[in-house]
Design a protein that fits this description.
Layout (H helix, E strand, L loop, with lengths): L1 E3 L2 H6 L1 H14 L9 H7 L7 E9 L2 E11 L4 E9 L8 H7 L10 E7 L13 H10 L3 E2 L19 E7 L4 H14 L6 H13 L4
Parallel strand pairs: 4-5
Antiparallel strand pairs: 1-2, 2-3, 3-4, 5-7, 6-7
Helix pairs in contact: 6-7
């Protein structure tokens, strides 16, 4: 497995990143859900929060699978934001290994959050992978749907709020403070911490998530 987490790695694996970008755009065709690739690369190796890295798997000198992980050290939380495996290599445990290995390089991880298309709002025609298939995959790895009407903040100034995603959680027991901390940090990073939609989510959390 190749890990890219600083500017030196970006230069070293320039060829692999070009391959990766093509797979990335194909795996996530809904533009509003896809963070601009150059923004992801730009923040790797910086002091920004979250801290971002990419794990790649190669076979026969070609990238066959990858995952992008955001890490929030102040709240001991990781957020795998995108993952994909080439179609011909699926059902070979590659995605499972990529996702299960996420916490291994971090200390004292308490929570993992991940987003998934809501099958009731997005169909296979909208995406290259059946949303039900993706959701079942995460559930098999013990991810649970967070019972809120999740709204993803815009991933750039050219994107809009996304209301067709589910938020899933794994690791320690989820309490309302942990969830609110994650959402606040996510919205803050994307410059929407004062959004009325975040305030609305917080109110919903108070009514649906138990306090630890």
């Amino acid at each position: 497995m190749i890990t890219i987490y600083n500017s030196k790695d970006i230069n070293t694996y320039e060829k692999e990143l070009k391959e990766f970008e093509k797979i990335y755009k194909n795996a996530f065709p809904i533009k509003n859900e896809r963070e601009p690739f150059k923004n992801i690369i730009k923040r790797i190796g910086t002091n920004s929060c979250p801290k971002t890295k990419i794990n790649l798997i190669k076979e026969n000198n070609s990238v066959i699978g990858w995952i992008i992980i955001d890490y929030y050290p102040e709240i001991n939380t990781i957020h795998p934001i995108y993952m994909a495996v080439k179609k011909e290599y699926r059902k070979q445990w590659i995605g499972t290994n990529l996702l299960n290995n996420c916490p291994d390089t971090y200390k004292n991880i308490k929570h993992i959050f991940i987003e998934c298309e809501d099958p009731s709002k997005i169909t296979e025609k909208d995406n290259n992978i059946n949303p039900n298939t993706r959701l079942k995959f995460y559930k098999k790895l013990w991810y649970n749907i967070v019972p809120i009407n999740y709204i993803q903040p815009p991933l750039s100034k050219w994107r809009s709020f996304e209301k067709k995603l589910l938020l899933l959680h794994k690791w320690e027991k989820l309490d309302r403070n942990a969830l609110k901390n994650f959402l606040y940090n996510l919205y803050k990073w994307l410059n929407h911490e004062n959004s009325n939609l975040l305030k609305k989510l917080f109110k919903e959390i108070e009514n649906t998530i138990y306090k630890e």
